[in-house]
Amino acid sequence: MSTGRREFLAWTAAAAAGAALTPVINLVELAQARSPGEAASALRRWGLLIDITKCADCDDCVTACHGENGVTGNGRPETDPQWIRKVSLRDKRTSVVQTLPLMCQHCEDPPCVDVCPTGASFKRDDGIVLVDKHTCIGCRYCVMACPYGARSFIHEAVSGQKPDVPRGKGTVESCTLCVHRVDRGDAPACVEACNRDGGKAMLFGDLNDPSAEIHRRLRSGPSTQVRADLALNTGVRYQGL
Amino acid sequence: MTRIAAAVLAFLLTVAGLAHATETRTGRVPVPGVKIEKGGACVAPTEEMRRNHMKMLFHQRDKTVRQGMREPRFSLKGCVECHAGRDTGSVLGKEGFCSSCHAYASVKIDCFECHSSVRQAKSAGVQQ
After folding, report:
1. Per-residue pLDDT tens for A118-136?
2. Is B68 in contact with A167 (Cβ distance < 8 A)?
3. Which residues in chain B have their CB less than 8 angstroms from residue A169's CB?
4. Under an 8 A CB cutoff, do B69 and A162 touch?
5. With an 8 Å Cβ cutoff, is B64 touching chain A?
6. Does A123 lie at the interface with B, CB-CB under 8 angstroms?
7. Within 10 A of B127 (CB to CB), how many other CB atoms are there?
8. Chain A with chain B: Cβ pairs closer than 8 A
9. Closest to B114 measured CA to CA, from A150, A57, A16, A160
């Protein structure tokens, strides 16, 4: 075999290996943050997986969420906004108590979007359900439509908002899955706090990405949607419920 | 003698120029006292910004909210970062970049009912 032929074979092998690697490289690119000029893609669907068995008896996720988004109350629990809350479930027969964080479940078919008369309540291409406060008229239909009680109406004037999280009186708001953080490639504040100070129960990721940890965990064991009977296909899933 | 006269003239012109910069009235037409703290280039020429800043913000806001495109060029956060007053750290208030001109033109702005009107670094400092 001449040197020329040997070189040719080596090049062919390298090219074949390169072609085989290309899909892998594409997947890696998908997992990274978008550039600011790039629109959210329908190829992704952001979601959360919450392992109830690890959910500690703390409210670090709630504190982190409300801190990150500048959600403050006025000491009136009836009307104060709430983006995420800890819910306790008690089995009446065994008295076993479980706690879990409950927030907007980022449904694939969100009832809040169906009922919104102005189109302010919408689902972004990557599955995050949001309120466009520029067009929200504060009718609160979505508050009533949401089976998870995830939406809050802002009853009182707000001051000291975070630059990334505009909030104002007369509009409805809910968990945004920390969209401003997700857009720059970070995980939501609740997930970060849970993994830092809490029970490491929360996992954030792309439900459509087969290489993502969340995808692997959902594939490997049973998980539950809250009110699965409504067939909303929630983006927030629970394990150990 | 000519040299001294030239120097005096130059001085007078400079003073007049400075007075013009802070004056809120040129001739018979009142103009808003917009205080520009930070010099340098804006995202578009001044004339275009005066006429079309609201269109830029409207265009950008829908893209940002609906599609998650957070281009810094026409973002309201970017405006505030640059134009917030040095003392107040805000674009609102009597001499605020936004509010002074809007009060003059009698056009209500409701951006800051929801959006933060203070510079990010400053607001973080105040809250921590």
Report:
1. 999 999 999 999 999 999 9
2. no
3. 113
4. no
5. no
6. no
7. 10
8. 57
9. A160
Q: What is the pLDDT of residues B71-84, one digit of tens each?
A: 888 899 999 988 99
From the number of C-beta atoms within 10 Å of its C-beta (0-12, 13-18, 19+), residue B43 rates as middle
**Cα–Cα distance list, A177 to A90, A139, A154, A182, A187 (Å):** 27, 23, 19, 8, 9
Asked if A173 contacts A152 with a C-beta cutoff of 8 angstroms, the reply is: yes
User: For residue B106, what are the contacts with CB-CB under 8 A and spacing of at least 6?
Assistant: none
Which chain A residues are closer than 8 Å to B65 by Cβ?
Answer: 130, 132, 134
Q: Report ipTM for this prediction.
A: 0.78
Best CA proximity match to A60, nearest among A174, A197, A202:
A197
Give the length of chain A: 241
Residue among B67, B113, B120 whose CB faces A39 most closely: B67
pTM here is 0.78
Q: Is the pLDDT of residue B122 over 90?
A: no
Torsions phi, psi for B118 (to 5 deg): -110, 155
Mutate to test the interface with B, among A164, A169, A171, A177 (most CBs of B within 10 A): A164
In chain B, residues with a C-beta closer than 8 Å to the C-beta of A162 are 116, 123
